[in-house]
Each structure stands twice: as structure tokens, then as C-alpha cells.
Design goal:
The complex is a heterodimer. Chain A is mostly beta strands. Helices cover 0% and strands 56% of the residues of chain A. In chain A, strands 2, 4, 5, 6, 9, 10 and 11 form a seven-stranded mixed sheet that branches. In chain A, strands 1-3-8-7 form a four-stranded antiparallel sheet, with no helix packed on it. Chain B is globular, with a radius of gyration of 13 Å. In chain B, the strands form two sheets. In chain B, strands 2, 4, 5, 6, 9, 10 and 11 form a seven-stranded mixed sheet that branches. In chain B, strands 1-3-8-7 form a four-stranded antiparallel sheet, with no helix packed on it. In chain B, a hairpin with a 3-residue loop joins strand 5 and strand 6. The chains are: A mainly beta, B mainly beta.
């Protein structure tokens, strides 16, 4: 079965770039009808969708991030990555990667990675 | 962005209770809504997609109804493992947006 695992620095300084990688195992990142997604959740708060890219190559991001987010993919490593520039303390959160599936006009996100805490602090 | 208003924000219930959580969209989203369960320190888990479709492996005590702007998640008989937070997520229009969550407590 497909599993996802986030990795990356747990501490990032303000104004720097947050970089996270999600490694996909048990399945191919190139599978059709899937899109590879990032979410985040500040401590004690709700979930926020960051963005995702489709295996076709297109992508969508939350405009609340003001174009600071980009996603890239490395099919040779079966990984996809998130970069978030110019971070502030408001970007401190647990970051999750997830696989989105689109089938018969339905959409769902499953599985999810376990999440990784990123703290923005000097 | 479409706003998802979830209610209640928290509720207290007992094992065996019937629990209902509602989610209202600020504009019509058809049936493009999912429900997710999140336990403390864990990632969310899909329960329902397309407003009423039970994800494979999810117990049948969970059910979802609704279309347009009003949606409901029902747990027919609350079990000890169901105490968690529940979130609705609309996938009709970008940006995807979640409800603020409902914490189901003992």
C-alpha cells in the first residue's frame, strides 16, 4: 500500500525558505488520477490546504500564501517537495503531505504522511 | 474563497450516542465535500468523500448526507475510538477549504 513520509528541517529562520520533501513508497508518483498535496496545521488550530500538483504537470496553490509556495517532483526518487519562501512565525505548523485521488468526479485525500513540525524562529 | 462553517465546534457525548456534525458552505458546492477524522498527534483520515460515499475500510456507523450548501456527518453509535476531531473539506473550488473542526469529547 502507498505510504508517504515527510522530511526536512524542523527549524527555519524568519525570512528564509522552508523546504520539505515527501517520499512516496508502495506506489508510483507518476500514477494517473493522482495529485500530490501539501497541507499544514498550526498547533491547536485547524487544517489548511497549501497546494498540489497533478501528474499532468499542472499545479494549484492557496492564494493566501501570496505566491510563496512552489512544488516540484523528482520521479526518479518518487518524491515531491514543497518550498515556502520568506517565512514568518505564522508559518510555524505541522506540515502534511498527502495523495489526492480524483475518480468519477469524486476527490479524496488518502493516505497522508505522519506530519512534520516546522518552527520558524531565529 | 468558499467558507465552510462547521458546527458545533465541540460536543460531549457518550459511547453509544448518535452524533451529528454539520458543515455549511458559503456557496453551493454540489457534493464536492469530504469528511476527515483526526486523532491527537495523528494525520487526518478520510471517512467520507463525495458527501456520502464511505471510504473503504471505514465503519458503517459513519454516514454523510447533503448537497449544495448543507452537509451532515452522522455517527450512529459512538464508539470509544471515535473520540477525535472531525473536519469537512470542500474540493469544489480552489482554494480548497476546511471547516474549523468539531472536537468530539467524552
Amino acid at each position: 500500500q502507498v505510504q508517504l513520509q515527510e522530511s526536512g528541517p524542523g527549524l527555519v529562520k524568519p525570512s528564509q525558505t522552508l523546504s520539505l520533501t515527501c517520499t512516496v513508497s508502495g506506489g508510483s508518483i507518476s500514477s494517473p488520477n493522482n495529485y500530490w498535496s501539501w497541507f499544514r496545521q498550526p498547533a491547536g488550530k485547524g487544517l489548511e490546504w497549501i497546494g498540489h500538483f497533478f501528474t499532468s504537470g499542472s499545479s494549484n496553490f492557496n492564494p493566501s500564501l501570496k505566491s510563496r509556495a512552489t512544488v516540484s517532483v523528482d520521479t526518479s526518487k518518487n518524491q515531491f517537495s514543497l518550498k515556502l519562501t520568506s517565512v514568518t512565525a505564522a508559518d510555524t505548523a505541522v506540515y502534511y503531505c498527502a495523495r489526492g485521488t480524483s475518480r468519477s468526479s469524486y476527490v479524496w485525500f488518502d493516505p497522508w504522511g505522519q506530519g512534520t513540525l516546522v518552527t520558524v524562529s531565529s | 474563497a468558499i467558507q465552510m462553517t462547521q458546527s458545533p465546534s465541540s460536543l460531549s457525548a457518550s459511547v453509544g450516542d448518535r452524533v451529528t456534525i454539520t458543515c455549511r458552505a458559503s456557496q453551493g458546492i454540489g457534493i464536492d465535500l469530504g469528511w476527515y477524522q483526526q486523532k491527537p498527534g495523528k494525520a487526518p483520515k478520510i471517512l467520507i468523500y463525495g458527501a456520502s460515499n464511505l471510504q473503504t475500510g471505514v465503519p458503517s456507523r459513519f454516514s454523510g448526507t447533503g448537497s449544495g450548501t448543507d452537509f451532515t456527518l452522522t455517527i450512529s453509535s459512538l464508539q470509544p475510538e471515535d473520540f477525535a476531531a472531525y473536519y469537512c473539506l470542500q474540493d469544489d473550488t480552489y482554494p480548497l477549504t476546511f471547516g474549523q473542526g468539531t472536537k468530539v469529547e467524552i
